[in-house]
Amino acid sequence: MLRNKRFFLLSLVLVVSLLAGATGSFAQEGGTTQLGPITQRIIDRGELICGVNAAVPGFGVVNAAGEYVGFDVDACHAVAAAILGDANAVSFRPLTGADRQAAIQSGEVDMISRNTTYTLSRDVTWAVIFAPTTFYDGQGVMVKADLGVTTMEELDGGSMCVQSGTTTELNITDAITSRGLDIDLVVFPDAPGTWEGYLSGRCDAWTTDRSGLVSYQATAEDPGAHVILDVVLSKEPLGPLTPQSDEQFAEIVRWTIFGLITAEEYGITSENIDDFLTSESPDIQRFLGLNDNPSGSYLGIANDFMVNVIRQVGNYGEIYARHLGVAPFNLARGVNALWTDGGLLYAPPFR
Ligand SMILES: N[C@@H](CCC(=O)N[C@@H](CS)C(=O)NCC(=O)O)C(=O)O
Questions:
Q1: Is residue 60 within 8 Å of residue 134, measured between CB atoms?
Q2: To the nearest 10°, the Cα dihedral for 258, 261, 265, 267?
Q3: CA of 78 to the centre of ligand 1 (A)
Q4: Which domain holds residue 95?
Q5: Are 210 and 228 in contact (CB under 8 A)?
Q6: Residue 207 Cβ < 6 Å to ligand 1
Q7: Is 166 in the pocket of ligand 1 (CB under 6 A)?
Q8: Rg of the chain (C-alpha set)
Q9: How far apart are CA 313 and CA 259, in angstroms?
């Protein structure tokens, strides 16, 4: 009787595992990759839902045609191309700094790609997985040129505009305290409000990520009227993030970002990708999933997923050049160059 019961239970476990395997798993050499719940829901709905910025030109903004565009926005397009084979299968949700935690925890968005700093407390308390850093940044301070200020110390006794729900707000408090300064913080809920507050004279200075300062200065009516001080108050490694509840989806996002960096390293672009499809190089064949070399199959997605990503979105360098390397930003790559060019961008091998 007991043996029969055991046999029944064992068979039940086997059938359930087989059924689970049949729904949303991809066969691959040496095993199967079970799709996680977020990957599965993206496939079922036929689009990715991505939380982005709508207020930082160059990184995430709505253009005149009503489309979301920018460096961070392209990370969403890349993930859509990786999973669905269509870079345009994305729906965007604008998020302010303070909206981010609730949006990712409630499942309102599948992922966020919005100048978000990778920190210990966010990693743990937001229950998220940060993808590789896509933009190494640091916090800066902007003042009006006619104020004649060149250092933080000269702002003693003055005021500074800052946005709530950001690392910026926390860092500036530390920076003021550690320097023994007396600077009043005037807090706003979003970037346009903070900028307007600074412009209208509510504060003497504006502090945020240097990328944000460059973005607003470059698109200001008179860029020369503002100066970004020669000070970096923090480390702000910015990149996408996904819920901890789906490690498999996080792997896809992680390797899509690594793929963008790797493509730049190999010199594979949206323009020349077809030339690489017949490459004799084992590295390239593995990276692009050609000639039965496993690549995307490890992730449960199209084996040649990076071909779709590069063809439709381009490599890291192309994305950077398209949004940040052009006027009015003309932002140098700096530490965001490849490691081979003295920068910090380094992707592990596709092997
Ligand atoms: N990297 C920082 C700051 C990010 C941030 O929210 N920056 C502001 C100022 S540039 C922004 O993007 N605001 C846009 C908005 O809230 O609409 C963080 O992750 O907290």
A1: no
A2: 120
A3: 22
A4: 37-135+240-341
A5: yes
A6: no
A7: yes
A8: 23
A9: 12
Distance 192 CA to ligand 1 centre (A): 10
Domain shared by 120 and 247, yes or no: yes
DSSP structure class, residue 117: B
Same domain, 125 and 189: no
Task: Report the number of distinct structural domains present in the chain.
Answer: 3
Residue 194 carries which side chain, given as an amino acid letter? T
Of the candidates 258, 288, 283, 257, which has an alpha carbon nearest to the alpha carbon of residue 272? 288
pLDDT at 168: 97
Per-10-residue mean pLDDT, the chain, length 351: 45 40 41 89 98 98 98 99 98 97 98 98 98 98 97 98 97 97 97 97 98 97 98 98 98 99 98 98 98 96 98 98 97 98 98 96
Check if the beta carbon of residue 210 is closer than 8 Å to that of residue 232. yes
Structure tokens at 121: 């407390």
Which one, of 94, 88, 104, lies nearest residue 47 by Cα?
88
Atom 6 of ligand 1: nearest residue by CA position = 97
